[in-house]
Design goal:
By secondary structure, the protein is an alpha+beta fold. It has 12 helices and 5 strands. The protein has a 5-stranded antiparallel β-sheet. The N terminus and C terminus are likely disordered.
Length: 330
């Protein structure tokens, strides 16, 4: 029984455990790829990467609130009624309002602000001159992105840095990487791999599964809440869109990690059960042998005698040994 337990659990390379570790290794490799795609979202002007975002903000030019805001900033037109009486005052007011009016007539070379997208690590802005991406709003502020009357760039930066709690996602990435190392050590035929590496892999996978679930639930709930709040506060002046691709990647990560966790945990529990059963059977055999022999022989004595007989058999001395033991020949 002790030999059977050793064959099952030795270095994770038995016929039962090794295929499970290889399958888990494939799942974890895909998990790391999807995690990398999520982290790369909204960090580049690439048509693919800029479409992987958590949430996007854009102006709704058809809303009444936006039109009202535009009319307020365009109040300079009202001074035309006093044009003949206060020409000098009108010129000064025009100059002042032209500077603060984000809806005034733009030069042909000045870009217009269309949309901003937010990822875990970056921001991407769509203007009439094309896409611009950066890791923070501070870097975007050095570029000409057009007029932004409601400061959507600052709102997006606050959302990325302070509203979206990215700690569960980073915990998932770290735990998955640690589990990948432990699993690959058990999947490959590498000698002298301690048994505790399987337990570490199972623990890391459990942490990764829980943290990935928490990250996706938080991302979905927070994005929906922000969308509802902004929609109510700005009276539809700002449109908020939730990125479905990142959520799809995230739930795929959760599924792959969960499958890997179940496989590795099954191996750990099975090995624990075999070791537990082996210990129980050995204890019962020891007890029965002591009772039958009056305590003169133990299980260790039987194993030692069996090992000696096996050695004699392999060495060809077993037959010669029987010549000196008449009772054994009978």
């Amino acid at each position: 029984m002790r030999f059977a337990g050793a064959v099952f659990s030795r270095f994770g390379t038995s016929s039962l455990s090794r295929p499970v570790f290889i399958f888990s290794l494939l799942c974890l490799t895909l998990t790391l790829i999807f995690n990398s795609l999520i982290l790369a979202g909204s960090t580049s002007r690439s048509p693919t990467l800029r479409n992987w975002y958590l949430v996007s903000f854009k102006y709704n030019t058809n809303s009444e609130f936006y039109k009202t805001l535009e009319s307020i900033y365009s109040a300079k037109d009202k001074v035309t009624d006093v044009k003949d009486k206060v020409t000098d005052v009108k010129d000064k007011v025009d100059d002042t309002l032209d500077k603060i009016n984000p809806f005034n007539k733009r030069d042909s070379d000045e870009p217009s602000f269309n949309e901003i997208r937010v990822g875990y690590r970056g921001l991407c802005i769509d203007t009439s001159h094309g896409w611009e991406c950066a890791y923070s709003a501070a870097k975007l502020s050095t570029q000409d992105i057009g007029k932004d009357p409601l400061h959507l760039v600052q709102i997006a930066d606050i959302y990325k840095d302070k509203i979206v709690w990215s700690l569960p996602f980073w915990l998932c990435v770290s735990a998955t990487a640690a589990a990948w190392i432990m699993v690959i050590a058990n999947a490959l035929p590498i000698p002298m791999i301690p048994v505790w590496t399987k337990k570490v892999a199972a623990g890391c996978l459990a942490i990764a599964a829980v943290s990935s679930l928490g990250a996706m639930v938080l991302a979905g709930v927070i994005s929906s809440s922000v969308s509802t709040i902004i929609d109510k506060v700005t009276v539809d002046a700002i449109e908020v869109h939730i990125g479905r691709t990142v959520l799809c990647f995230g739930w795929t990560v959760f599924a792959l990690v969960t499958v890997s966790m179940l496989g590795v945990c099954a191996i750990v529990v099975a090995e624990w059960s075999v070791n537990k059963a082996t210990t129980f059977v050995e204890a019962q055999a020891e007890k029965g042998l002591n009772t039958a022999t009056g305590g003169k022989f133990g299980l260790s004595d039987v194993e030692s005698a069996g090992a000696k007989l096996e050695g004699l058999k392999r060495g060809g001395g077993l037959t010669k040994g029987f010549a000196f033991v008449p009772s054994l020949r009978r």
